[in-house]
Amino acid sequence: MMRIVPFKPRLDHMLTFGLVVLVGVSLGLSAMIWTGTPVRLTIDRPGFFSSPSYGSTRSTNGVLQPQAIYYWTKENQLFRVNNNTVWAHQIMRALSNATVLEGHSYDLVKSPYTFPPQGAYVKLDFGSSVLSPSALALLFMNSPSTMKAAIDGSLYLTSRAHGTSYRLEYRTTKNQVYVATIAADKTLAQWMEKPTQAVPYAQFPLNKALVYLPYSEITVPIEDWIIDRPVSSRIIDSFFTDPTIMQAISVTAHHMLYTDGTRGVHVIKETYGDAITYVQPGGLLSGVKQHSADAIATSVAFINEHGGFTGDVSLQIAPSSIDNVTGLAVSFHQIVDGWPIYGQLGTLHVGIVGNTVVHMSRPLAYLNELLDTTPTRILSGSELLQKLSPSSQKAILAVSLGYGTHWLGTDVIELLPVYRVTYSNQRVSYLDAQTGLPFVGIGME
Amino acid sequence: MDFTKVKTLLIAVFLCLNVFLFVQWRVLQANVAVYAEPVSDQFANAQSALANSDVHVQAVLPSIVQPLSMVEVRLDRPSFSVRDNVPVLTTVNDRKNRISVVRSWVAKHVYNGNAYGFLGWTVMQGEHIAVFTQEVNGYPVFSAPLRVHLKGSRIVGYDQTLVNVRSIKTARPVIGPVSALLSLAQYLQRAKINVPNQVKDVRLGYYSAIVTDVGFYLAPVWRIGTSRGVFFINAFTGEVEVALS
Questions:
Q1: Using 50, 70 and 90 to split pLDDT, how confident is the model at A392?
Q2: I want to staple A293 with a disulfide (CB 3.0 to 4.6 A). Which of A134, A202, B203, B241 is the partner?
Q3: Which residues 245-264 on chain A approach chain B with CB closer than 8 angstroms?
């Protein structure tokens, strides 16, 4: 005989079972949603270098400034004006609002224009930089694409007799003269007059070069600076996309290499503090051309992201970059009171290949506080040249005045005026500007 | 208390909750699917991104990628060349089996020749060059090549670089070949490089151009061979390096 099971207890069991299943399903769905939801990740990079107190960021146009500006009067007098004066700033500002019209290249000898120009002119001196058309375009509001590259970083501006037009002249990489008209507003005319804060200079025609040197003894201050030495570990991480894979190699007691296999940062202990060299070895694809304007922008952006710029700087594009095959070498020289600091402590080098920074070297130490200043009389150009032998004079390519660095110990660096002499075999020597004797400073061997 | 009613009520509540959770889960699946593209779609995207820089992919991509490590190595001895003084001159007459003849010659006459695997052929200044690379953990070390030079059908010399493994770091996941191609596309776009080019070969291995006498670290890289040069893509970070010619 079949046993009759009451319906209610059966329903109870079914409800219990159903409830358990439903609770299980809801827990399962909750877990799936929990684990399947994408999570916003914040990657913490301890020690990432971002201290604004170390360096400051710069714009591309801000660093493409002449190292000095020369003014040649109608009376055949020459003056040098520092690049940090109001006059120099106003000239550059007026040019940034000017338009360069289509120009022409002429043979140096057959040119209808004398070169360098006669009469009053302003010479913008970008060191010995090679200025490509794209780099020149950064100086003006508008410029024709047909402009030629300037070989020695010297641009000459002359006023036309009437109107608001000016003539731009420079020597090209093909040893021709490029002449173009500049259309500018009246502010340029206002600043094309003789500046008030200027140092009398003289032209010295030598066997291989026309050099510009002080006309008479001038006063240049000797400056003592306290340097700051940031800890290198703070900046090393910033060079790596993922610092957790970075490995350290002790090359010597004074040389550490940090690498992720693709990039490397060498930290070398110098007397004045750590110097770092970043490398990302890389070649250039065949058929790819480089543009110096892009190189300047790339290098400035790279420095901005890796410690920034300390103090006033001026830019120099290496003459060897002319062939565009091995990449572009861009240097930044620190300027103090209008004079460049020579040697390792004042120089920052960037190498660019295929619009990628493949090399950067810089000292981490920087001039932080002016401790003392002593005005000093230095040799005039003629006195300096008298101290050089005739054979040396024949081989001179360029002479310029700036600061050499002398280590006073502890944390103090002395900046001493020196003449930098470049010879035709690319040898560079430094001479004490007070005595004319050889000078060896930090990284100036 | 009537537990039957309570259970019925709870069943209704959990039914509604489960429907809600199911809808949420489906929405989530749909959203995640946007990020988790099929490999074929990712490859199509990479091809399209490369095509913007006039680069076309004509290579077969490896499908399986395993975690790899940084490898600390030291040069076994300075890289050296043997020319005009090859131990045993060999004539490679059989053009069809040329590589097997060269391979057995390498195994027999080159120091540690068995450590090398064949990478490919190149032609330089009229010479055919069989390029081998040392292998570590089954992967080629592009920093340690062996180049065997053939003039006509004769082996006339070789250049060799050999490394010794000192330590292997912890393995980490590496990016896939499609991600490597995407990194390359981004690099070309950023560097404003727009010249006609073809990707001929994509393979995973080890490489570093940062070398010191006291040792160096090899990173896992994707080697992308193109008609205009070779790119190395760091398989951890996706950073692109154009090989030094």
A1: confident
A2: A134
A3: 245, 247, 249-251, 257, 259-264
